[in-house]
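Cross-posting from the chemistry board since nobody answered there.

I work mostly on the small-molecule side, so proteins are not my area. We synthesized S-adenosylmethionine and want a rough idea of how it might sit in this target. Sequence and SMILES are below. Is it possible to get a predicted 3D structure of the two together?
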Amino acid sequence: MYVWPCAVVLAQYLWFHRSSLPGKAVLEIGAGVSLPGILAAKCGAKVTLSDSSLLPHCLDVCQQSCQMNNLPQISVVGLTWGHASPDLLALPPQDIILASDVFFEPEDFEPILMTVYFLMEKNPMLQFWSTYQVRSADWSLEALLYKWDMKCTHIPLETFDADRGEIAESDLPGRHTVEMLTISLRGQSPTGAVYAGTVKTPTRV
Ligand SMILES: C[S@@+](CC[C@H](N)C(=O)[O-])C[C@H]1O[C@@H](n2cnc3c(N)ncnc32)[C@H](O)[C@@H]1O
């Protein structure tokens, strides 16, 4: 299976923060091969993998990744961005949403944030951790983040040892421009306390 550069960088971020993962409820959206979600489960998180309910072969890939990594406890559900499906409604509160390379079509940006916002209403301290490949300088999340009352923080790759062309014996990230961001509700710090600081908001995707 081909592992995309964004997935390698997000997995590196998870590995860097692995001590915070045991017991956390973690949902990966647009999971595909699911490297970040699989790593989170190996680090002790309670993981749910999801991909579009309209793409059953992608859900099969998620299932295969669980089997190949001997993780039968992971649930796999069909979640199409922006759809209020029974599977989305039935999800318990989540602590972290993982999303690797999901910002590749501007028309999907708002449906993705709608799904994230729905889950933030269940847990206002939820954090969205995402990597994206820089594809166009014209694409921006800024207006949508404002509309959905969210804030975004850019995480420099050097802060989690991902600023090198080779990570975990993979040379994939070196050939692409990959960026890392976290999104949370405006007014919430990552720990849930009311946040009064200034957040740099790089919103180009
Ligand atoms: C570029 S791939 C990234 C896959 C994986 N996250 C990775 O980084 O290797 C985009 C993923 O989003 C899923 N996807 C596309 N449109 C979607 C939608 N509307 N709702 C949910 N998932 C979707 C695709 O099936 C695919 O798995």
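Reply from a structural biologist on the board:
Welcome over. Reading the output above for you: The chain has one domain: 5-185. The longest helix spans residues 106-122. Happy to explain the token format if needed.
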